[in-house]
């Protein structure tokens, strides 16, 4: 399905509305999981490296907690969106079983 999204075959003539909605939902799930990865892998370390805190400050730990909560939110969106996408595509026969 990811190959279909990348190749642009989302707009195939004759594709059912449910199959298209399923592909869109799956795509949003992929965007959510990529956002979580960017927050953890690129944003967090850069911000922590730039925090100039006094010794004993809890600012870096608080920021890491905040980033962890964002990751959990994005992970939940990923699970729900990709699940809905897969179910919709399978319901209309757009994916092989």
Account of the 3D structure:
- It is a single chain.
- The protein has one domain.
- The chain has helices spanning 2-7, 17-50, 59-91.
- α2 (17-50) packs antiparallel against α3 (59-91).
- It has 97 residues and is an all-alpha fold.
- It has three helices and no strands.
- The mean pLDDT is 79.
Number of helix segments? 3
Specify Rg, calculated over alpha carbons: 19 Å
Structural class per helix/strand content?
mainly alpha
Overall geometric form: elongated
Order of helices and strands: HHH
Query: What's the N-to-C terminus distance?
Result: 13 Å
List the domain count as a whole number.
1
**Content of β-strand:** under 5%
Number of strands: 0
Low-confidence stretches: none
Residue-averaged pLDDT, rounded? 79
Work out the helicity level. Answer: over 70%
The largest sheet, given as strand count, sense and whether it forms a barrel, is: none
List the helices and strands and how they pair.
Layout: H1 2-7, H2 17-50, H3 59-91
Helix pairs in contact: 2-3
Distinctive features:
97 residues, mainly alpha, 3 helices, 0% strand
Provide a quick synopsis of the model:
The chain has 97 residues and is an all-alpha fold. The protein is built from three helices and no strands.
